Amino acid sequence: MSRFPIGASVRDARAADAPTARTAEEAAARIGGPVFLASEELPESFAAPEAAEAAIPDLYGGGRYELLWRDNSWRVALRYWRPAPPAPVARSVEAAVKRPLGAARTPEEARAILQAPAELATETLPQRYATRARLMARWGALAAVGLAEIVEREGRFAVAVHYWRPIVSPVRAPQLAPAERHELAERIAAPLKGQAPQAPLDIGLFEQPAPENPDIVLAEEGDGRVRGE
């Protein structure tokens, strides 16, 4: 497996002392945040492949570089691990894409939001797409900056999202983040409302509401019976 340099730009990635990593997980661990594999053309152009090879001795074999013919000249693209924008912070992948608690680049930033130790996770959303084009129409922007990956599941396409989530202890429930505590307090203070108006009493043929309390249904024999008993 090829090792790719890590850098915030193609110039940083070409530096002699640029760190390298084989996988996104290894690169993320080295810089303390999510990364994605970028492919960026170098500013130089070459009249022939031999000129490109002379300028870049490791052009072939390592997998880092790609020789391209573009605009009547030979150009070289470099693949490198590039830091992704701050990833969403949430307790589930669904919350990460709909209503995250915030965004963080490092475990320390995520911990400050969650008020608990955090880890960078990758989870796949349940929705499936018949074509890659339809998926990219919805998630292309997120994938372009390295916060999502396109995966194939059972002949269809899905999106896997990178986000920070709390590290849950097997013996202790995670504490609520400040934003979650605030939302919970608002819900507790709000008046309770049913999802639908209360249904009318189910009164049978030989039953009638009690005159003194319409919430009580009386049978023909006269014994009080509350609905549902």
Folded structure, characterized:
It is a single chain. With 229 residues, the protein is α+β, with helices and mostly antiparallel strands. The chain folds into three domains: 4-83, no CATH class; 87-166, no CATH class; 202-229, no CATH class. It contains seven helices and 13 strands. Strands 3-5-4 form a three-stranded antiparallel β-sheet. A hairpin with a 4-residue loop joins strand 12 and strand 13 (224-226). The protein is elongated and about 105 Å long.
Q: Give the end-to-end Cα distance, rounded to a whole number of Å.
A: 70 Å
Query: Mind describing the biggest β-sheet?
Result: 3 strands, antiparallel
Give the proportion of residues in helices: 25-40%
Structural class: alpha+beta
The number of helical runs is: 7
**What is the number of domains?**
3
